[in-house]
Design a protein that fits this description.
The protein has about 220 residues and is an alpha+beta fold. It has one domain (about 1-155). It is built from seven helices and seven strands. The strands form two sheets. A five-stranded antiparallel beta sheet has the order 2-3-4-5-6. Helix 4 (about 155-165) crosses helix 5 and helix 6 crosses helix 7 (about 200-210).
């Protein structure tokens, strides 16, 4: 296995917090779940939480946070590593070879479409870096990681820029910053982010997904 260096990723706890913040903001900005890019489920299983990205174009990232660590499975449908790009449908050889069994098991749920993968990254508890398997990577081939992990906005400014383009709505930076800084999500804060959103409905969904407390 080799150390994952690009794009850089925060430690699992910080990454989980980041994904929770982004999921909460998307939920507030968009009533329809299927149109949201960032999602998070605090009750994915008895001992797992799960964050995901879905750009609506067939590209998906799943991140499972478990007692053993965290594992990321990404799929770029246009990547030459896609099983759909092979002469014989199948996962590109070696992508999963060195993933620790305890973490590999976490992404074998049918909901993750295990075979649809173009990159896989993991970090076990106690590790100081993220890792990926060592396998043949033809020159010039892209696995989609730079593109898809770029959706993980890491600042209020980057989320504001992305969301204003995606949702086609102006977004108050101070309100976005408040969510990033762990402010209590109230009806007033929801209204400042998205005046058209049903605040009570948003609060109920935030509570169901474990997103009311982000600090």
């Amino acid at each position: 296995m080799i150390i994952w260096e690009k794009p850089r990723l925060p430690a699992p706890k910080q990454l989980e917090k980041q994904m929770r913040i982004l999921a909460a903001l998307d939920l507030i900005m968009c009533e329809e779940d299927w149109l949201r890019v960032h999602r998070y489920d605090s009750t994915w299983s008895d001992d797992e939480t799960m964050g995901s990205l879905n750009n609506g174009s067939g590209d998906v990232v799943f991140v499972v946070f478990a007692p053993e660590g965290a594992v990321i499975k990404g799929f770029d449908h246009e990547s030459p590593y896609s099983p759909h790009a092979q002469e014989e449908y199948g996962t590109w050889p070696g992508i999963y070879n060195e993933v620790p069994e305890a973490l590999l098991h976490r992404i074998q749920d049918v909901a993750f479409t295990h075979e649809d993968v173009t990159f896989c990254i993991w970090r076990e508890n106690g590790d100081s870096a993220w890792h990926t398997s060592e396998y043949e990577q033809p020159e010039g081939w892209e696995n989609g990681a730079d593109f898809l992990l770029g959706y993980l906005c890491d600042s209020p400014e980057s989320y504001q820029e992305w969301a204003q383009d995606y949702f086609e709505e102006k977004l108050e930076l101070a309100a976005v910053r408040a969510v990033f800084e762990g402010a209590e999500i109230t009806q007033e804060l929801i209204a400042s982010l998205n005046p058209q959103r049903d605040a009570e409905e948003a609060l109920e969904e935030l509570e169901e997904l474990g997103l009311l407390k982000l600090s």
